[in-house]
Amino acid sequence: MVAFLIAGVILGVLARVLRHGPDDPAPLLTVLVGVVGAVIGGVGMNLVLSDPWSGLTAWSFTAACLLPFVLLGLLQGGVGRRA
């Protein structure tokens, strides 16, 4: 679980650094979405494969790295924003 939290923080900061513009969401929101996505992705993959709190596996870490980028992409793209 700690690995998922750390991965989420790193991916949130990385996404913020790589894609920064004037209309981007707040930095704290970007990091928070990264952390939430990593935890949901990692625990969700563990739930699919075995016990949800079993620990870090290659599949759960991969999911914990991919889901935050999907969520951050949706956040950056403005999904749900009204024009």
What does this 3D model show about the protein?
With 83 residues, the protein is mainly α. 72% of the residues lie in helices and 0% in strands. It has three helices and no strands. The chain has helices at residues 2-18, 27-49, 58-77.
Would you spell out the secondary-structure blueprint of this structure?
Layout (H helix, E strand, L loop, with lengths): L1 H17 L8 H23 L8 H20 L6
- Counting structural domains, the number is 1
How many helical stretches?
3
**What low-confidence regions span 5 or more consecutive residues with pLDDT below 50?**
none
Outline type: elongated
State the major sheet: none
Radius of gyration equals 13 Å
Terminal CA distance: 38 Å
- Binned, the helix content reads over 70%
Assembly state: single chain
Task: Please name the defining characteristics of this protein.
3 helices; 83 residues; mainly alpha
Please outline what is shown here:
With about 80 residues, the chain is mainly α. The protein is built from 3 helices and no strands. Helix 1 crosses helix 2.
